[in-house]
Amino acid sequence: xxxxxxxxxxxxxxxxxxxxxxxxxxxxxxxxxxxxxxxxxxxxxxxxxxxxxxxxxxxxxxxxxxxxxxxxxxxxxxxxxxxxxxxxxxxxxxxxxxxxxxxxxxxxxxxxxxxxxxxxxxxxxxxxxxxxxxxxxxxxxxxxxxxxxxxxxxxxxxxxxxxxxxxxxxxxxxxxxxxxxxxxxxxxxxxxxxxxxxxxxxxxxxxxxxxxxxxxxxxxxxxxxxxxxxxxxxxxxxxxxxxxxxxxxxxxxxxxxxxxxxxxxxxxxxxxxxxxxxxxxxxxxxxxxxxxxxxxxxxxxxxxxxxxxxxxxxxxxxxxxxxxxxxxxxxxxxxxxxxxxxxxxxxxxxxxxxxxxxxxxxxxxxxxxxxxxxxxxxxxxxxxxxxxxxxxxxxxxxxxxxxxxxxxxxxxxxxxxxxxxxxxxxxxxxxxxxxxxxxxxxxxxxxxxxxxxxxxxxxxxxxxxxxxxxxxxxxxxxxxxxxxxxxxxxxxxxxxxxxxxxxxxxxxxxxxxxxxxxxxxxxxxxxxxxxxxxxxxxxxxxxxxxxxxxxxxxxxxxxxxxxxxxxxxxxxxxxxxxxxxxxxxxxxxxxxxxxxxxxxxxxxxxxxxxxxxxxxxxxxxxxxxxxxxxxxxxxxxxxxxxxxxxxxxxxxxxxxxxxxxxxxxxxxxxxxxxxxxxxxxxxxxxxxxxxxxxxxxxx
Length: 699
Fold this sequence. Notes:
Layout: H1 5-17, E1 38-41, E2 47-53, E3 59-65, E4 68-75, E5 78-80, E6 90-105, E7 113-127, E8 132-141, E9 144-151, E10 159-165, E11 168-169, E12 176-179, E13 193-196, E14 202-203, E15 207-210, E16 216-222, E17 230-235, E18 239-244, E19 253-256, E20 259-260, E21 263-269, H2 273-276, H3 280-283, E22 299-303, H4 305-309, H5 325-338, E23 342-344, H6 373-382, E24 386-392, H7 397-401, H8 404-413, E25 418-422, E26 430-433, E27 439-442, H9 447-461, E28 466-469, E29 485-488, H10 508-512, E30 532-535, E31 538-541, H11 546-555, E32 560-563, H12 567-571, H13 574-582, E33 587-596, E34 600-607, E35 613-619, E36 624-629, E37 639-646, E38 659-662, E39 675-680, E40 685-692
Parallel strand pairs: 22-23, 22-32, 23-24, 24-25, 25-28, 28-29
Antiparallel strand pairs: 1-2, 2-3, 3-4, 5-10, 6-7, 7-8, 8-9, 9-20, 9-21, 10-19, 11-18, 12-13, 12-15, 14-17, 15-16, 16-21, 17-18, 26-27, 30-31, 33-34, 34-35, 35-40, 36-39, 37-38, 37-40
Helix pairs in contact: 5-6, 11-13
């Protein structure tokens, strides 16, 4: 096994420093032709990118789709504290092209085989005067493009302080934007909203856009390593300007040449579902560096999480302490009886008493007296279930870093293969202690935080442990390079239904599918069965029907999904619970079939290593009647459909539990030539399992 940030950084540095092979003569720019433009197309010819220089010698690029400009000439460049910037006064010395048409296999994922097909253009640039050299690398796929800056070692750039980028995305002012604020207190847990482009302030990525032509774009980044994440700020001239997250000390990044930035990405699709079906972000990450990862285990897990949020138990010690040996064994029994893979028990370790957010004093190796870690882990193994670990840091990076090696060793001794980490606290409040013992507060997408999340991931990998990060940095596809980064939160989850804030509206998940989910897997805790309840005498409501809760297991991808509700709530509705028992979390193929951002979405997925297909459909506050062609099913096979749909009177507000379940009687079989009619209630959904029927068993 090869781990360590040095492995990945070495790969990136090698790409940044490697000399360009000789290019064809017609690809070489003469020094006097600095304003010459270069073009590169997607393999299917629909996306065309032109890269050149402005009159001031600043690099810029333009993107066209089906012959129409979708990103107007947009400037590029890097700023440094040394004032020896890589912005203007540049010339193009050399251009190289290459094409790749390959496939690679995910050890787990939304699809097993990923097509990696692109055309690449790399421009070497330099400037007169001080030694200023770098490269712009563009890769253009059928589903979008990525570009990055690569700075080789040179006198002026051995050790540099980055102060910003001029990377811009000049799209139509008339575009509709689907965005989330970047600097709000709740980090990535703010609601997404739709607005005119000109009304944006500073927003997070992924940012989805619908142009007046109907073309859809999504702006994001891939392979965020040793660099600050960016947000996007509206500018009347440049439209969307990248803003790198600063450190607590004011600069953006400290870098050693050679280095390469993360990829700046633009997904392009003629329909909204094309954004979901894209593999662009994954493809722009480096291949797996961990070697054999057969120890990584997708699956479903249960836990006391919902009981804690409901106020039935507490994280801290005392009479109502939730993480007891007795409670853990009860959940282990429930998991074993229903075929679930793991049990998460939050609050088992000392430190939850008092104000643990402001003054984290967790021990990650010492349990409360009423929790026997060794006995619980052993009991889980005996029942064929794994204990899922939990490390809440209270947002204290340095405090956790000082204990995590011992903490992961402890878990490894007890057979724990997955750990959920947490960094609760307001935005910009991650605590870092410097070499002088002074405390700094950092953002979760600062260079310091990016490095910390990476260090945790690598420490876990050395013990064959996978990570589920909560309150994380945004997902940029690093699961390809580090497959033990199973999933993460980074979104407004269902716990908001019990808190004092506004609960998630019915459109929320249909918005997430086209925005947050473009980054990668999300731990959203679908499957709540108790949709109406009280907290301290105040009525609360999950703004969803029961059928929609089932559909979310298919619509919102994660290789590990929680089954979050109280066991008794599932046992009270065994017919509906059966879908959660059956639905897998690892897929052979996934296809978004239909949808519009924030309105509705329909997704079909094939079970990995199996023949069953699953379908999930969800809607916003509007009821819908959908006709879903089943042409995703293989030809020549007949399927029995088990349908979990909203009942005739279902409505998220007035009748959330109304559900019709049709397991099929074996007489009405469906093929890929059929169309499935689905009725979705307001705030509702539908979940379907398609089981192939052998030829001999057909009526």
